[in-house]
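Exercise: predict the fold of this chain.
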Amino acid sequence: MRLNFENYLYGGSQLGVLLIAILTAFTFPVSAQQTSNTTADTLSLDRVISDVLKNNDRLAAARFMEQSSTEKAKGAGKWDDPMLMLGVQNIPTSSWKLNKDDMTMQMVGLSWPIPYAGEKGLESKAAQAEATASTAARNMTASDLITAAKLAYYNLYYQQIYFQDLETQRELMLEVVKAARVRLETNQVGQEDVLAAQSNVWRLDAEILDARHMIDDAIYNLNNLRGQKIISSEPTVKAPTFPPLTNNVAELVDAAYANYPELRRLESQSESYHFSSLAAGRMRWPMLSLSAQYGYRTGYGMMGPRDNMVSFGANLSLPVFSHSKQGAMARSMDLMRQSADAQINQLRRDIESGMATLYQNAWSYSEKISIYNDKIIPASEQAYKSAFAGFINNRTPFTTLLDYAVDLYRDKITANQLALDYARITAEIERYTTDTGAITVNNTSEVK
């Protein structure tokens, strides 16, 4: 009976080897193919951000809108053109001659509306503020893209680390399987122990396949943001570095108040609404238009040679209907300003709350990462080594060895996930505190 079970075990082991070979055929050739050209494409975070700012069309679209607002602001507030008048007055129909009647003359005139109320200057200021808001909107788009680039970069880097940890853990579990088979031959462990260890290897093979797909997805996402060919060889990603955390959350809040583009956009929009409201209020005043005419007369009249004539005039509109119209427009613009101000106040509170939360999370993750890297993982590695040596010398039960091996794997995966979460938190903090305008201006794609 024992002999038959052993035959089943070894047959199962052979089947396991075959399955591993199949999984390896699907997994590792892809990895080898994609990593064979890693030296050809080494990525740093700065290069990724530069590629995104140069090639991503979302930023190009925002830049066109910014340029449109800038050009529009150049023409806002300009005075209306003067009107040139040419004609002939009082032609006698009996002769159709221009030199017979004293009242007949050739006339040239000029009229010009004068914006004495100052609405043109206010319209110019409103347009300039709108252009500034458009620049802030472009910076907000750039900030979103830079943050997305950072997240994609961090995701790819830590997915690669995760993949490497899985491969290392698989080698470790193969050592456990090998040790268990050796002990099985001397009846020191049961077949179920070997099968349990082998099952863990196969579970890792399945996770390795998933990790490979996650790396591919991360590459596709990163290349999409960079405006590069979506499917490409796996790049070598440099380890990211992070600035030290500040000891005062108020510094982060102040930096966010100074640099967050959405806050700048709302402030400029509020300013634009304010000037538009003032301009509409000024247009309730009577509109003034000045005119001058010069009449040429030839020939002789009843009193002798006819003199040329000059006329001057001033026209004032009567704002009977436009007064209520422009008043409603002024009130509308003022309400929009109040809406923008309310959004500014709420956004400031959101920033303060968000910075406090991100700050606490960053410190928490930083401490947990240190605990895992400096304490838990070294202790887990030492515990596994001791358990493995004890198992070989028949001092440690197989189940204990297996638990230590699994614990080591889980600890490394947890530490890697903590590092990824910390990187994501720093990216979110930098979304608020980084002067995106300086980054985009220094980028060559932004220089016009």
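Check your answer against the key: The longest strand covers residues 105-114.
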